[in-house]
Amino acid sequence: MRYIPLLWLVVVGGLLAPTYAQCPPNRPNPNLGGNRTVCVNQVVSLSSGDNDAQHLWTVNGEIVRQDPNDPNSPPYNQPTYNFSPPGPGSYRITVATYYAGCPDTLQDAINIIVDPLPQAPNLGPDQEVCASTGSITLNATVPGATTYIWLANGVQVGTQSQYTHNLRPGRDTIVARAVFNNACTGGRNDTLSDTLHLTIAPVPQAPNLGPDRELCARVGSITLEAPAGATRYIWIVNRNELSNQTGRRYTHTLRAGRDTIVARAVFNNACTGGQNDTLSDTLHLTISPLPAAEITRRGEPIPNGETIQIGSNTVTTVRDTFRAASQVQGNTYRWELYNPQATQPSRTAVGEEFIHTFFVRGEHMLVLKSINGACVEQDTIYINVNLRQGGTGLADVGSAFFSVYPNPSTGTFTLQAPAGTYKLSLQDMTGRLLYTETFQGEQREVRLSLPAGIYLLTLEGPTQRGTLPLWITE
Length: 474
Known about the structure:
The protein is mainly beta and 474 residues long. It has no helices and 37 strands.
C-alpha cells in the first residue's frame, strides 16, 4: 500500500480541503483484489472497502467522472465502482481514498484483461476470379482467436490467420474456422467459421483441332474436342453452322471427300471482363474412299481366300495374268507373290495388272494391296501351280536347298549350295532367259551387268531344283 501526498487542495464535488485535525488513526487500506480476466460483456464490480473515505477512481490514468459523457463533470466519489469494459483490451484501474484532516491518501490498483466475444471470420461474398491471377490471399483474422483452421474442398490446408489459395479453373470451397478459448467461452473451445465459394474462370484459349489430316472412310467417324470452360461452343462444317451441336465435343461422320470443320469457343467470364471473347481453330479433313478392289483372272473375280489351279503336268512353266478390278477412282495397287513355304515375297509389282511366269510347283500366295489415300485393303488368293517335273526327273523343291547373298545386290552375288554339279539359269519376270552356266562345288560367285529389277534365279542339281528371286539394284 502506497501513501501519496494529498492532492485535493480545493473543494471539488464534495472533496474537502484538508484540515489535519481529524485524521482517523486506523484508516483502512483500499483493496480491489487480484488481477482478473473477464469477457467484454461482463460488468466488473469493484470496492475499496472503505465506506467513509472520499474516493477518486481512474481507468488507464483517466479520472472516472460522475457523468462519463462530460469531461468537466466532478470525479466519481463512491466506495464501489462498476466497470463496464468499452471493448477488449488491458485496463488498469486505481482507487485513492482520502480523509479530511489526513496529510496523504491511500491507493490500490488492479489489472483487468478483457477478452473479446467470439466472432466468425468474414471471407466476404462468393466470387468469380480469373485463373491467370495465380492465387488469392484470404484473411480470417478476428480478435481473440487462439487458432485457425483452413479447409479447401474438405482438405485442411492451413493453420494461420491468413491463407493463400492457388487458382486453377473450376469451383473451390474454402472454409475458415476461428477457435476461441477465453473468458467469454468459459474456458472451453468455441469454433466459428465462414465459407467462401470460388468460381475460378479459365483463361480463354483457342480450340486445337490438331493438324490437317487424311483419314479413311472406313474409320466411320472422328470426335473433336474444344477446350473446357467456354460459355458456349459453335461448330461449323463446310460453312454450315450446326445448330444442334453446342457442346465442346463434336463427332463428325466420315464420308469420302474433303471437309472443313471450324470450332469456335465463346468465353464470357472473369478473365474477359464480362465481355464475349471468341477463339477458333480450323481443321481440313481429306476423307479417302474405300478402294473396294478385287482380284480377277480372265475377267472373273476370285473371292478373297480362294485357291485356284493353274498349269499341268505337261509343262515346266506356266504364265498367267491377274488384274485388280474396282469402280473407285484414284486407286493404286501393289502385288506380292510368295513362293511355296516362303516368308518373304519372291516378287513385287505395282499397277492394275500382274503378269507372272511360274517356274515352281506348289501353292503360291498372291496378295493385292489396294490403296486410296489413307485407305488400304488387302485381298489374298492361293495359286496351286501344277508343273511337270524336270526332264531328268528332278523334284522342284523351291528354294530350300541353296542361298544367295547379298540379295539385293548390284549384280555381283554368291551362290551357296551342297557340294555337287549344278546348272544355273537366270530369267526375267517375263520368262526370258538371260544367263546360264554350269559349275561344280559348294560356292559360286557370279558377276552380271543387269538393269535394276527382280529376276528369277534357278539352280538345278542331280536330284533337286530350286528357284529364288534375285533383286538387282543400281
